[in-house]
């Protein structure tokens, strides 16, 4: 099973999981914040709403469309990370 | 008077608003969402342009009308008087700035020359070595779909989500089969006008835009390279130009591209790459910013880059307000003032210029003579 890092925590998830599902299963919420500070998270789950954006290995991606891979480094967007 | 406006983009909404002000009862026919066509696809840059005396008059008057409207707009319209910097890459381009500045001043628009050092202070993220810029502080940006909705509500217009099948004497026939009668029909549905009126001299001109994530790269003005004018009005080949707009969110909206005969909505990835490379030549830090979304839209271009505003040459009671190419948001308000002047005999300085659809017939008569 792929082992990856979610906001600095190492987790193991079943192959075929999306990065979004991995984040949600790890309880990492919200995914990001709006300009005015409101919580934001995945809405459509199919790549249209762009609300599930996260940084995977340095690139901002739609996490709902991104399958997990062994060794991935996943971070929520900066505005959430700075709260940690 | 009973009026029908075909098209619920910003031009149609502004025309509905102007007609209602003179007492017309207005019905707007728009099969899609209000402001969902070219109105939503564009940058919303309110910009004075001087390619021709008529274009300068129309854009300058429209900017005055925008300034008067701005205090009434809802916050969601994101109206922001950021000004434009026309960036000169070299001394040759900078030499073209002074005549442009004089034209703007003559049209009542403030414009100042920035030398290389002043430009670097005004926009420190631009690459070093640029020659200077023309600063036009009265230009603005706006989120146009919100303005379209606002104007339709202010007009008290009835908006029906219906497509028009054809123009008939004294009204329209809807695709549903229903007939609507009116004293005046205004065709303001952009490129859709050619489906109702085949033979109009209008062509689609596709454009790409891209918006970035919020990031550390900030600019203060809408930044446009002076070479944009070559891109906008050069030959028929695909072209790109540096054109970047700061959004109130800290995102950057990046343009621009122009392509004739590409009626689809697909992203042309090689062209988008060219467009972004051009932008990064001026703003090198763009290389490190993530894109959020990119999309395309269709401008509706006329042969002389001026809109068609005025009575249809052969159809009684039919007026046109289309063909605005890349300036439909800027010039929607001037267009509406001009249309009202043509319909109701009210005053407008814009009547001094020929925006009427009939001008193309006169040209072809001359050519054929």
From TrEMBL, chain A:
It comes from the Bacteria. InterPro entries: 2Fe-2S-bd_N, 2Fe-2S_ferredoxin-like_sf. The keyword Oxidoreductase applies. Pfam families: Fer2_4. SUPFAM superfamilies: 2Fe-2S ferredoxin-like. Keywords: Oxidoreductase. This is (2Fe-2S)-binding protein. It comes from Deinococcus arenicola.
Automatic annotation (TrEMBL), chain B:
PROSITE patterns: PROKAR_LIPOPROTEIN (PS51257). Gene3D superfamilies: D-Amino Acid Oxidase, subunit A, domain 2, FAD/NAD(P)-binding domain. It comes from the Bacteria. Residues 3-341 form the FAD dependent oxidoreductase domain. Pfam families: DAO. Keywords: Oxidoreductase. The keyword GTP-binding does not apply. SUPFAM superfamilies: FAD-linked reductases, C-terminal domain, FAD/NAD(P)-binding domain. PANTHER family: FAD-DEPENDENT OXIDOREDUCTASE DOMAIN-CONTAINING PROTEIN 1, SARCOSINE DEHYDROGENASE-RELATED. This is FAD-dependent oxidoreductase. It comes from Deinococcus arenicola.
């Amino acid at each position: 099973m792929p082992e990856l890092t979610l906001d600095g925590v190492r987790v193991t998830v079943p192959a075929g999981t999306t990065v979004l599902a991995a984040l949600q299963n790890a309880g990492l919420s919200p995914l990001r914040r709006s300009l005015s500070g409101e919580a934001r998270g995945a809405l459509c789950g199919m790549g249209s709403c762009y609300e599930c954006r996260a940084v995977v290995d340095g690139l901002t991606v739609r996490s709902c469309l991104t399958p997990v891979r062994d060794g991935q480094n996943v971070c929520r967007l900066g505005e959430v990370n700075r709260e940690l | 008077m009973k009026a029908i406006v075909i098209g619920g983009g910003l031009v149609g909404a502004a025309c509905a608003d102007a007609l209602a002000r003179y007492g017309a009862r207005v019905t707007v026919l728009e099969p899609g969402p209000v402001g969902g066509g070219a109105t939503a696809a564009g940058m919303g840059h309110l910009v004075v342009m001087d390619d021709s005396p008529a274009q300068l008059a129309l854009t300058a008057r429209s900017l005055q009308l925008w300034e008067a409207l701005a205090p009434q707009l809802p916050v969601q319209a994101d109206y922001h008087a950021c000004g434009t910097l026309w960036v000169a890459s070299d001394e040759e381009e900078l030499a073209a700035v002074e005549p442009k500045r004089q034209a703007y001043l003559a049209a009542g628009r403030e414009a100042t020359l920035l030398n290389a050092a002043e430009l670097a202070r005004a926009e420190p993220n631009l690459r070093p070595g640029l020659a200077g810029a023309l600063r036009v502080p009265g230009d603005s940006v706006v989120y146009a779909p919100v303005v379209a909705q606002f104007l339709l509500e202010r007009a008290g217009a009835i908006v029906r989500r219906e497509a028009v099948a054809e123009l008939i004497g004294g009204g329209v026939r809807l695709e549903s089969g229903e007939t609507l009668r009116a004293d005046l029909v205004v065709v303001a549905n952009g490129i859709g006008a050619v489906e109702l009126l085949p033979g109009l001299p209008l062509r689609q001109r596709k454009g790409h835009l891209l918006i970035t994530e919020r990031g550390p790269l900030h600019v203060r003005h809408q930044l446009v390279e002076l070479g944009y004018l070559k891109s906008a009005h050069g030959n028929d080949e695909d072209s790109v130009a540096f054109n970047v707009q700061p959004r109130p969110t800290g995102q950057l909206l990046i343009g621009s591209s122009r392509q004739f005969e590409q009626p689809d909505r697909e992203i042309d990835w090689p062209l988008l790459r060219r467009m972004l490379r051009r932008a990064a030549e001026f703003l090198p830090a763009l290389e490190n910013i993530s894109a959020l979304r990119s999309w395309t839209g269709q401008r509706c271009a006329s042969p002389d880059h001026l809109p068609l505003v005025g009575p249809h040459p052969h159809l009684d009671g039919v007026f046109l307000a289309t063909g605005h190419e890349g300036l439909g948001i800027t010039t929607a308000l001037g267009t509406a003032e001009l249309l009202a002047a043509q319909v109701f005999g009210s005053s407008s300085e814009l009547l001094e210029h020929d925006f009427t659809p009939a001008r193309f017939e006169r040209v072809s008569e001359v050519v054929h003579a």
